[in-house]
Design goal:
The complex is a heterotetramer. Helix content of chain A is 33%, strand content 27%. By secondary structure, chain A is an alpha/beta fold. In chain A, the strands form six sheets. A six-stranded mixed beta sheet of chain A has the order 6-9-10-3-11-12, with helices on both faces. In chain A, strand 23 and strand 24 form a beta hairpin. Chain A starts with a strand and ends in a 5-residue tail after the last helix. A seven-stranded mixed beta sheet of chain C has the order 7-8-6-9-10-11-13, sandwiched between helices. The chains are: A alpha/beta, B mainly alpha, C alpha/beta, D mainly alpha.
Chain lengths: 498, 322, 367, 325
């Protein structure tokens, strides 16, 4: 480990409704891999976005190579030598791999972009990384994993002094992860500073030198990896927040009837011959890596995407579900992973969103009965403890957790018996997360059946009565909670990946 | 995989349609095959094609430019007005017309990229404004440009020259092809073109890649305006007398041409050669249907249906590939 | 300085127009009676008139305004002119007319885009006591007392003049197998274009019949159906009438092109400025006009004038927009003075390379 | 300033709309001062003639814009309706009532055509509009054999002129009553029925509404059908005021209808629509038109001013929303 290259101190940042960063400190040395850990919503990504100029900080100082700096956009940061490999993919789908890697700093011959040289350089990069991607391929034709590798290659191709990896491994296979680690070690030996954000405890132990833990937008502490245990880190991450008790055994009575049966469901490449059963009062966890086909399964089941074959039985009866309309008619509700895109109409009020699925019931003849509509909205605001000045508030003004509650309210108003929660706590701060967990448990206890798709292992282990693991569009395992361990799940989640 | 795509790409289909249209018209009407008919068709095509090339850029960014039709007339009026009323040399007037176009394009770009107005609305407003400006500048009067035989009418020979043995050569077609190649080159091989596609495909990602998206987004509309300016010269050379209050609707033929030629209506994809071919399909329909005895008005209905058809083919094709 | 020269010229024109026969070929209308009523006219007060024209699109209207300027200066009255963006914007014109009437001017000069849509407004003018002078286009069903004077060129006669001159030039070619004569009309709904188009068609049929030839109609249904005396099937002359989808020069040129491309075409008539310009655009490439095909235009404007001058067009018919504008203001002034008026038919002129510099013609040939 | 903006009543009505309304009043005042005799009944009647048909067009297109779509074929569609029904009236002698209904039905059919292509086939609204515009113009021309169509005068001997009483009886603007009723109905449809709710919500986030189990295609199509129907009704008011329609035209009215809609606060992005705002916008444009003419300037000046007003209002809207996010 060399001298300190980057110091962030007292960084403060607020968004409407969320105090995202509360005087956070962070330090990075040359030649170290520094893990940044914390639950979703702890503020890691926000901190990195402040560093790279995507967000401007409210207060605090950033010192890079001994000088106080403030970047106004990613370009400035890149110029200075700080690059980020984003968690969300930031690729221009219509351009080729090479074009994407060198976007914004194309090689040129006069006015002309030197595509040939860009292709050659990309090849060189990929060779270094030992990955096999055709630089001439169109980006949108690649798999998610390959796109992620391109993103990494792009970051490395900058003559960077500091590289930030924001959960790079989420979509990678074991082999790819090994390659990635080889690259990271190589970079470390070149005396670069590396910030590594991840949830995977094992990786942290393997690759990092120090660990900084954040919680609820605050700095908790920094440890030297070799000198601490997993438990130390977890304790720091979880802190005082009391979670719902993790489940050790299924809460579903043995004689609970099957409410939903999915038989040999096929829908495109991502859903291949998936079968499972869901019982009354059960929380069925769906685990797997990014792009394993879980969301696609849920969407096909819900009729949101077309399916090729497969039967669906509800309470023993075969039903036809070709559209969300059919699904809702049969009492299925779906909370999308991407709330803003699929869940809520953000420019509309809480009331309008809450009754979206049930508007028919609030009609007085031709007209909407606004008072009963309002009454039921108020009821669920109270019941779900949604924090809002009133039912006429626009959803855009609510925090992530409260927006999620509005979506849940929509399905509760509908009185759905089967609920699909797709990444229910993504982008929600810790406190609200816990409330959502409580709520899910309560709903299950009331006899609702829940399918929960989650990429967070802890969430899966904490909430599920039973776990289904998917990999590359296939169901690769079904584990009762009693037998479930991270290792067992991980093994099945990567089973098909070579 | 990639090869398959090229065979069925919209550009190829449209090129086949263009040739087929030509052959059909030729077979039915012997007059259509005449060289003079071809010349006339070329004359009329220049300004539509120039507008189409220009508007392809905003379309590829996922935007649109509705101000090019009335704009073109406005620029032609301004240039002609200078020649007629102030004896400005033709070259200078042409320059003014083109720069006027670029200026209105800049105005569109600033409204859209810097101030954040929806492209449709910003350019719609400029459509109204240019239509008005053209009339205000000239006091609502029609403006004749110099004829080919007048001393300051040399600019006609930009588009058409007569050889010693009286054969006419549609020189404009050469310019169109050169401009098409140039703009295709710019789209495919320069930063400006690359970023045009990037803005249309994923503006956020382009921004995060450190591209000065605002600047390039403005420039896209400047190019569109610039080409409307060029089109105004072609218009003046062919039609000669420019009438204020006209031009509305011409942009739709140009945009339609680009869309038919495979430019994605939602942005991110498009080629200039496709645009030019598509524009010629529209022009062939416009100019060719009267030759085969169609009621002139049927031509409008058919153009409308062709437009929907082209987009439907694209939609169906995408579904099949999926 | 320029103005003075114009004034002198105008005086000469006015003097001339009362003596010289209106049309070179045939004297179709008599203007003397109409213009005589304005002799010695002086405005009782400095009236302000409102003029509503069809549009400012074609230079035709510029010439009309020039005539108005002249008359206004002579009489010491003022006027202001308005017009919609194009001759098709009927609603805009009705609004303008209403607005003009509501402004209670001393009188309104109106060149109506559409004759039936202004009727209600004309009634309003009667009620408000605003005298209306119709110029360029007569209004047949106008409410009693609304139109105090009509200053128009007889469009049917103008079309007939074109037919007479065109027929004269081509009649030697008729007889050995069918020949084709084309007519481009920019539309088939505006009254003046209809009259002009049909005037041309019917006169041509009449002339042909006198020489023992038959005429068959082809093309636009309206004109085909309205033509009088045409035959079905084989004929000595095929008269093809084409109308574009929209009234633009480029579409007119396409229609003209289809006619010029036919081998048996011997003559074409473009019945207004747009149609004639379209004809010229089509001819740019074919260069058959003035060579194997006789071209006849209508109105003036830079390119049509040039075409007549260099023999591309045999000639053209011009209405006298200048006169029309001039007499419009005179009629308005006389009406405002309380004078009873009779209609003023203004002249249409046949002009060709020889006579276009004549002082009776030249002022009417606007650029 | 902020205080006023946050006042609940102001918030409910919309700050920009209040400003627009004040501009309307100010304009009327200014015109009345500058132009002698502007504040006359005759002027108001003349303004209303324009308000009626533009109003129906704008109200219709408000629904489409609320879904996040666009329809700029409405002007030519209105003309096509008036041409086809008027031609049937004059040439085939169908009764006036039938002709009027025919106009509305043709508009509705155009709306169905547009709506089907947008909602069910997935053709971008922009392209559908472009195509329909051509088709409407062509159809109007082909049907009438490119003849202009003049509807009967009020004193037409055939007695067919009675439909003009829909607009004006003895100088009393009864058209205002029909227009008012239409505003109220459409306001209720937009704000108090399922159709309006779904149209607004799907304009805000179509996928979310679809995943709520709503048949979004149906409702999306409905917006276009409403728009087309309104164009059919607009046609009736157009001919009542201006008698004659010509084939191949109508484009200019699209821009004015969309402009009045947008300056009234309906967002081009969809999801936000204001019937009241649209109506104010229509009055602003119509008043501007009359005022500009009364000042003896040409229509073009009105276009420039309209364009500028729209830019200012949309910018105010866009920047306000940007500040909020």
């Amino acid at each position: 480990m060399g001298e300190v290259i980057l110091t962030m101190s007292g960084i403060d940042k607020s968004f409407p409704g969320v105090h995202a960063l509360d005087h956070v400190d962070f330090e990075l040395r040359r030649g170290e891999v520094h893990a940044l850990m914390g639950e979703n919503g702890a503020g890691k990504s926000t901190l990195m976005k402040v560093l790279t100029g995507i967000y401007s900080k409210d207060s605090g100082t950033i010192t890079f190579e001994g000088k106080e700096v403030e970047y106004h956009n990613t370009h400035d940061a890149q110029e200075a030598g700080i690059v980020i490999v984003h968690q969300e993919l930031n690729m221009v789908g219509d351009l080729t791999v090479a074009q994407n890697i060198f976007i914004g700093r194309e090689f040129r011959k006069g006015f002309m972009i030197d595509d040939r040289r860009m292709i050659e350089e990309s090849k060189k990069l990929f060779d270094e990384l030992h990955i096999n991607i055709d630089p001439r391929a169109k980006m949108s034709d690649l798999t998610v994993g390959k796109q992620q590798m391109c993103e990494i290659a792009k970051a490395i191709s900058h003559k960077a002094k500091v590289i930030i990896f924001d959960e790079p491994s989420a979509a990678l296979t074991e082999k790819e992860i090994d390659d990635l680690f080889a690259i990271i070690r190589d970079l470390r030996s070149q005396n670069l500073g590396i910030i590594y954000i991840s949830h995977r405890m094992d990786e942290i132990k393997v690759i990092t030198d120090r660990v900084t833990v954040m919680r609820d937008g605050t700095y908790v502490g920094t440890l030297i990896t070799d000198e601490c245990t997993k438990e130390d880190i977890i304790n720091m991450m979880v802190g005082r927040v009391i979670y719902e008790e993790p489940k050790t055994h299924s809460m579903v009575p043995a004689d609970a009837p099957v409410v939903l049966k999915v038989d040999h469901l096929n829908a495109g490449k991502m859903v291949q011959d998936v079968s499972f059963e869901l019982r009354k009062g059960e929380i069925l966890g769906f685990s797997g890596l990014m792009g394993a086909g879980r969301t696609e399964t849920a969407r096909a089941l819900f009729g949101a995407d077309p399916k090729q074959s497969g039967d669906i039985y509800i309470n023993g009866e075969k039903v036809t579900i070709n559209s969300p309309e059919d699904a809702v008619k049969h009492g299925i509700g779906y909370l999308s992973e991407d709330r803003k895109r699929y869940g809520i109409a953000v420019q509309k009020t809480i009331t309008e969103n809450s009754t979206l699925a049930t508007l028919k019931e609030y009609m007085a003849g031709l007209f909407i009965n606004k008072s009963t509509e309002r009454a039921v909205t108020l009821q669920y605001i109270k019941e779900l403890d949604t924090k809002t000045p009133g039912p006429d508030q626009l959803v855009v003004n609510l925090s992530g957790g409260n927006q999620q509650k509005v979506v849940i309210a929509k399905w509760l108003v509908r009185n759905c018996d089967i609920l699909i929660f797709d990444e229910p706590t993504r982008g929600i701060d810790v406190g609200a997360k816990n409330e959502i967990y409580k709520l899910m448990n309560r709903l299950a206890a009331e006899g609702k059946s829940i399918i929960m798709i989650s990429s967070e292992m802890t969430e899966i282990l904490r909430m599920s009565d039973r776990i289904i693991v998917m990999c590359e569009g296939k169901k690769t395992g079904e584990i009762p909670i009693e037998e479930a361990t991270q290792e067992a799940i991980m093994d099945k989640a990567t089973r098909d990946i070579r | 995989m990639t090869k398959k795509k090229t065979i069925f790409s919209q550009e190829v289909i449209v090129a086949i349609v263009l040739v087929a249209l030509y052959l059909i018209f030729r077979t039915i009407s012997s007059d259509f095959g005449k060289y003079t008919t071809f010349l006339s068709m070329m004359d009329i095509s220049y300004y539509y094609v120039l507008m189409a090339i220009g508007v392809a850029f905003p379309l590829i960014t996922g935007g649109v430019d509705l101000s090019i039709g009335t704009g073109m007339i406005c620029y032609a009026l301004a240039g002609g007005f200078l020649i007629r009323n102030y004896n400005v040399p033709t070259g200078l007037a042409i320059l003014v017309s083109i720069l006027f176009g670029a200026a209105i394009g800049l105005c569109n770009g600033v409204l859209i990229s810097i101030l954040g107005l929806p492209p449709f609305l910003a350019t719609l407003c400029n459509c109204m404004i240019t239509r008005g400006l053209g009339s205000v500048v000239t006091g609502s009067f029609a403006v004749p440009w110099p004829t080919a035989k007048q001393d300051n009418g040399w600019f006609h020979s930009i588009f058409k020259i007569t050889t010693a043995n009286k054969t006419k050569i549609p020189l404009g077609l050469v310019w169109i092809i050169l401009l098409m190649l140039l703009m295709q080159f710019i789209l495919a091989h320069t930063r400006f073109g690359r970023y045009t596609i990037a803005i249309g495909s994923n503006k956020e990602a382009a921004m995060l890649s450190g591209i000065n998206v605002r600047f390039y987004h403005v420039m896209v509309y400047v190019v569109s305006g610039l080409f409307a300016g060029l089109a105004s010269i072609a218009y003046a050379a062919v039609i000669k007398t420019v009438q204020p209050g006209t031009g509305a609707g011409m942009e739709l033929d140009a945009i339609g041409g680009a869309i038919v030629g495979g430019v994605s209506a939602s942005g991110g994809y498009g080629t200039i050669y496709g645009t030019v071919i598509g524009a010629y399909v529209i022009i062939f329909l416009k100019q060719g249907l009267p030759y085969i005895g169609f009621n002139a008005n049927m031509q409008q209905i058919i153009t409308g249906l062709v437009l929907i058809g082209a987009v439907c083919i694209d939609i169906i094709k995408r579904k099949v590939i999926k | 300085m320029k103005k003075k020269a114009l004034a002198i010229l105008m005086g000469a024109v006015l003097a001339a127009s009362t003596v010289i026969p209106a049309f070179a070929a045939e004297n179709l209308s008599d203007t003397t009676e109409g213009t005589a009523q304005f002799e010695g006219l002086a405005a009782n007060e400095a009236y302000d008139f409102q003029i509503v024209v069809k549009s400012f699109q074609s230079t035709y209207w510029q010439a009309a305004l020039k005539g108005m300027d002249q008359a206004a200066e002579e009489l010491g009255v003022t006027y202001s002119a308005q017009g919609p963006a194009s001759e098709s914007d009927i609603a805009d014109q009705v609004n303008m007319l209403n607005s003009a009437i509501n402004g209670a001017p001393a009188g309104v000069g109106l060149a109506a885009c559409d004759t039936s849509s202004v009727l209600e407004s004309l009634q309003a003018a009667v009620d408000a006591g605003v005298p209306i002078v119709a110029f360029d286009t007569g209004i047949a069903d106008a409410p009693d007392g609304s139109i105090v004077c009509t200053v128009v060129t007889d469009n049917t006669a103008a079309g007939e003049v074109a037919a007479v001159n065109l027929y004269e030039a081509v009649k030697d070619q008729i007889g050995d197998g069918p020949v084709r004569i084309g007519e481009i009309n920019q539309d088939n709904y505006a009254l003046n274009i209809q009259q002009r188009g049909l005037g041309f068609i019917n006169k041509l049929i009449e002339l042909a019949a006198a020489d023992g030839y038959t005429v068959a109609m082809e093309g636009n249904e309206f004109y085909v159906n309205e033509a009088v005396g045409a035959v079905e099937g084989d004929a000595d002359i095929i008269l093809e009438v084409r109308v574009p989808a929209q009234t633009t020069v480029d579409l007119c040129s396409t229609e003209a092109g289809t006619i010029l491309d036919k081998e048996d075409t011997i003559a074409v008539f473009g019945s207004n400025q747009t149609a004639a310009e379209g004809l010229l655009v089509a001819n740019d490439n074919r260069e058959v006009l003035g060579d194997t095909v006789v071209g006849v235009g209508f109105d003036a404007g830079t390119s049509i004038k040039a075409a007549v001058e260099d023999g591309t067009f045999l000639g053209a018919v011009t209405q006298s927009p200048l006169m029309m504008g001039y007499y419009c203001i005179y009629a308005l002034t006389a009406a405002a003075n309380g004078q009873e008026l009779i209609d003023v038919p203004t002249d249409g002129y046949w002009y060709n390379a020889e006579n276009m510099t004549d002082e009776s013609i030249a002022p009417n040939l606007y650029d | 300033m902020e205080k006023i903006k946050n006042n609940p009543i102001v918030k409910k009505l919309g700050f920009n709309r209040i400003i627009l309304f004040l501009i309307l009043l100010l304009m009327y005042g200014a015109f009345s001062v500058i132009i002698p005799g502007f504040a006359s009944m005759a002027r108001i009647m003349s303004i209303l003639n324009y308000v009626y048909f533009l109003g129906f067009l704008a109200l219709g297109v408000t629904f489409v814009i609320a879904t996040g779509g666009i329809d700029f074929s409405i002007g030519p569609v209105m003309f096509c309706c008036a041409l086809m029904s008027g031609y049937s009236l004059n040439t085939f002698g169908v009764p006036v009532v039938v002709a009027l209904l025919m106009s509305i039905v043709i508009g509705m059919l155009f709306g169905c055509f547009n709506g089907y292509l947008v909602a069910f086939v997935g053709v971008p609204p922009f392209i559908v509009s472009m195509a329909t515009m051509n088709i409407a113009k062509g159809l109007g021309s082909v049907f009438t054999k490119t003849q202009s169509v003049s509807w009967p005068q009020s004193n037409d001997p055939s007695g067919n002129g009675w439909f003009r009483n829909l607009v004006k009886v003895d100088g009393i603007p009864v058209g205002l009553i029909i227009f008012g009723i239409a505003i109220v109905i459409l306001f209720i449809v937009m704000n108090n029925t399922r159709a309006g709710r779904y149209i607004l919500c799907l304009g805000s986030n179509k996928e979310a509404v679809r995943l709520s189990g709503v048949n979004v295609r149906k409702w999306q199509m409905l917006a276009y059908v409403i728009c087309g129907t309104m164009a059919g009704i607009a046609a009736i008011f157009f001919v009542s005021a201006y008698t004659t329609v010509q084939p191949g035209l109508g484009d200019t009215y699209n821009n004015e209808a969309i402009a009045s809609c947008v300056m009234g606060g309906t967002s081009m992005g969809g999801g936000l629509a204001s019937i009241g705002g649209t109506v104010i916008g229509v009055f602003v444009i119509s008043l501007l038109q009359e005022g500009i003419m009364a000042m003896r300037m040409t229509k073009e000046v009105q276009m420039i001013i309209t364009g500028l007003i729209v830019i200012v209002f949309v910018y105010a809207d866009v920047s306000a929303r940007r500040r909020r996010n």
